[in-house]
Amino acid sequence: MSPPGRATSPPWNISVDFFKALFPLPDQVKLVGHEPIHAKVGDDVILPCRLMPPYDVNHLIIEWRFKDRIIHVHRGGSKDDETSDPEYKGRTSLFHDEFEKGDISLKLTNVTKEDEGNYICFVPKLESNKLAFSKQKGMLKLFFLFVTGPHPGVIGVFDFVLPVAVVLTMLIIINYVVHRQKAERNKSFSL
């Protein structure tokens, strides 16, 4: 008997909860992402997206979208991903060795100003009605990538060479004028 006012749950409830914790079902899995990501032109960035609790996605379709275009697709069971959008060809990749842990983050290399905007991580087979901005079946996570100008530490050739050339030219002219004045003074003293 349980004390008054305290209900006891049947022992099978605990084992069901334990089973769910060990073997989560796809409808219990949530996508976890990141707040806005900042990058500079030329940077490589990772748009983090993972399933929580960790869920093996090797057998699932994973899509990354940008501006209503699919920019990267992993088809379950395949080792090769697809990037059909020419602007992203060779610039996107997933971390296949992390799929077992539910990590479906996208690596985007050589970021351009045109890459700025909303990215969507989408797993069609995982059903969730908890994401209000989704009218599609499946789970998705929204990201925003901010892109700014080139690295402040990167100096172009002309940004460096031109000022150095101007300073050297000025030093040569000053040196010439000073030596010429000294030579004229020495010449006038010797007369």
TrEMBL record:
<dbReference type="InterPro" id="IPR013783">
    <property type="entry name" value="Ig-like_fold"/>
</dbReference>
<feature type="domain" description="Ig-like">
    <location>
        <begin position="26"/>
        <end position="132"/>
    </location>
</feature>
<keyword id="KW-1133">Transmembrane helix</keyword>
<dbReference type="InterPro" id="IPR036179">
    <property type="entry name" value="Ig-like_dom_sf"/>
</dbReference>
<feature type="transmembrane region" description="Helical">
    <location>
        <begin position="160"/>
        <end position="178"/>
    </location>
</feature>
<dbReference type="GO" id="GO:1903037">
    <property type="term" value="P:regulation of leukocyte cell-cell adhesion"/>
</dbReference>
<dbReference type="InterPro" id="IPR013106">
    <property type="entry name" value="Ig_V-set"/>
</dbReference>
<dbReference type="GO" id="GO:0016020">
    <property type="term" value="C:membrane"/>
</dbReference>
<dbReference type="InterPro" id="IPR003599">
    <property type="entry name" value="Ig_sub"/>
</dbReference>
<protein>
    <recommendedName>
        <fullName>Ig-like domain-containing protein</fullName>
    </recommendedName>
</protein>
<dbReference type="InterPro" id="IPR050504">
    <property type="entry name" value="IgSF_BTN/MOG"/>
</dbReference>
<keyword id="KW-0472">Membrane</keyword>
<dbReference type="GO" id="GO:0050863">
    <property type="term" value="P:regulation of T cell activation"/>
</dbReference>
<keyword id="KW-0393">Immunoglobulin domain</keyword>
<keyword id="KW-0732">Signal</keyword>
<keyword id="KW-0325">Glycoprotein</keyword>
<dbReference type="Pfam" id="PF07686">
    <property type="entry name" value="V-set"/>
</dbReference>
<keyword id="KW-0812">Transmembrane</keyword>
<dbReference type="InterPro" id="IPR007110">
    <property type="entry name" value="Ig-like_dom"/>
</dbReference>
<dbReference type="InterPro" id="IPR003598">
    <property type="entry name" value="Ig_sub2"/>
</dbReference>
<keyword id="KW-1015">Disulfide bond</keyword>
